[in-house]
Amino acid sequence: MKTMPLLINVGKAITLIAWLMMAYNLVIPFDGNVAIILNILLGITCMMHCFQVAIFHMLFKTLLPLTKQDYLQVFIFGIFSLLTYRQRVLANAV
To answer: Measuring CA to CA, which residue among 16, 18, 9 is closest to residue 87?
Structure first.
């Protein structure tokens, strides 16, 4: 079960690279349709990660003491942060 933290960290790294590409595209747009696609993906990503933050709040507020940094982690890394907090809750339950 040691591969799970590795996969979570790889997923977080890939997610961070995607965010950086989409943010770079806002400052210096890429040529052609790539810029449009990245802008659409940025909007979809923001909406989905906001939805994940809401899920995170509903599920974990009673199980863990949450800080603003926890919410920011979930907004940036999405499901990979949710998996990290899930593991933390399961570890506390044992």
So the answer is: 9
**Rounded CA separation 77/17 (Å):** 11
Residue 82 near residue 8, CB atoms below 8 Å: no
Number of residues assigned to the chain: 94
CB 26 within 8 A of CB 39: yes
Stated pTM of the model: 0.88
pLDDT in tens, 33-85: 999 999 999 999 999 999 999 999 999 999 888 999 999 999 999 999 999 99
